[in-house]
């Protein structure tokens, strides 16, 4: 392996002289950003997420492979449903990667994107445009969880990747995430369940009968989440592992409450 730091000037010179690299100063700035520890995804400015180009210039959470893994399963589920129109909500949307991928791969889907931070809503709008998604199939809502979401007959699917890292586990979080990614996208209170609790308390009221929630979480939260889901009257509850063998996401349905 070449020690790239040592040869950085020479690499720039070769790029410029041999390959006609015109944006040398910009390239050198990017290398400096990397040397300071900035995540390569922010330096490049976008990532691929299930074949969609997800721009990161407003610095939302960098989409993770674990999220890509379950989003693909959710898309398969939508396709298998055989429905002609599927109303979806991507809540805690950040970059919008989940909803954008759903819109791209499931032509029957329409998606409402909900996010608290204004700058991330701009990011989602940009990503929807970048991926040529029809304006008729998407809506953007600035909302503190469900505060600005209207019932409108409910959703068939709600996708949620809430901030779920426990404050008590701050020391275990990757240093680059702590330094470079927005804390509001990462931490979910002392035990990480602050937003999960609030979300699950209300989400049932925004689902159509037999509508489904897909939600990501930390593997340590599985048992507590199972308890919350039962208490809140969800049915057909399933927990799944990610591609690394860790409990990572759940699917649950709105079923009629007992006695009704
Ligand atoms: C873990 S990130 C998920 C981003 C994206 N969905 C993904 O999977 O990469 C959580 C997002 O929730 C947003 N958020 C935090 N608190 C919120 C709240 N009270 N209501 C709505 N969104 C919130 C954050 O700004 C952040 O963009």
TrEMBL record:
Q: What is its EC number?
A: 2.1.1.297
Domain Methyltransferase small, by residue range, is 81-169
| Catalytic reaction list | L-glutaminyl-[peptide chain release factor] + S-adenosyl-L-methionine = N(5)-methyl-L-glutaminyl-[peptide chain release factor] + S-adenosyl-L-homocysteine + H(+)
Q: Does the keyword Ribosomal protein apply?
A: no
Q: Which BP terms from GO are recorded?
A: methylation
Question: Ribonucleoprotein: is it a keyword of this entry?
Answer: no
Q: Pfam families given for it?
A: MTS (PF05175)
Gene3D superfamilies from the UniProt entry? Vaccinia Virus protein VP39
Please give the Gene Ontology molecular function terms for this protein.
nucleic acid binding; peptide chain release factor N(5)-glutamine methyltransferase activity
Domain of life, per UniProt, equals Bacteria
**What PROSITE patterns does the database record attribute to this sequence?**
N6_MTASE (PS00092)
Keywords, ordered alphabetically: Methyltransferase, S-adenosyl-L-methionine, Transferase
* NCBIfam families membership: hemK_fam (TIGR00536)
PANTHER family (alphabetical): HEMK METHYLTRANSFERASE, MTRF1L RELEASE FACTOR GLUTAMINE METHYLTRANSFERASE
Protein name, entry field = peptide chain release factor N(5)-glutamine methyltransferase
Lineage in the entry?
Bacteria, Candidatus Azamiibacteriota
């Amino acid at each position: 392996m070449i020690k790239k730091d040592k040869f950085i000037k020479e690499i720039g010179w070769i790029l410029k002289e041999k390959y006609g690299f015109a944006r040398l100063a910009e390239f050198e700035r990017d290398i400096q950003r990397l040397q300071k520890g900035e995540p390569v995804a922010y330096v490049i400015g976008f990532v691929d997420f299930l074949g969609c180009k997800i721009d990161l210039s407003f610095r939302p959470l960098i989409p993770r492979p674990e999220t890509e893994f379950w989003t693909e399963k959710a898309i398969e589920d939508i396709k298998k449903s055989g429905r002609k129109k599927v109303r979806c909500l991507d809540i805690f949307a950040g970059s919008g990667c989940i909803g954008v991928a759903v819109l791209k791969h499931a032509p029957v889907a329409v998606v409402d994107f909900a996010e608290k931070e204004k700058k991330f809503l701009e990011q989602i709008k940009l990503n929807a445009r970048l991926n040529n998604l029809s304006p008729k199939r998407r809506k953007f809502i600035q909302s503190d969880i469900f505060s600005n979401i209207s019932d409108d007959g409910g959703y068939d699917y709600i996708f949620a990747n809430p901030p779920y890292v426990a404050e008590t586990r701050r020391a275990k979080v990757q240093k680059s995430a702590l330094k470079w990614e927005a804390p509001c996208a990462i931490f979910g209170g002392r035990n990480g369940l602050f937003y999960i609790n609030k979300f699950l308390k209300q989400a049932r009221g925004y689902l159509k009968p037999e509508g489904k929630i897909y939600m990501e979480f930390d593997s340590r939260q599985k048992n507590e989440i199972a308890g919350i889901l039962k208490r809140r009257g969800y049915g057909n509850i399933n927990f799944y592992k990610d591609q690394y063998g860790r409990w990572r996401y759940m699917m649950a349905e709105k079923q009629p409450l007992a006695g009704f």
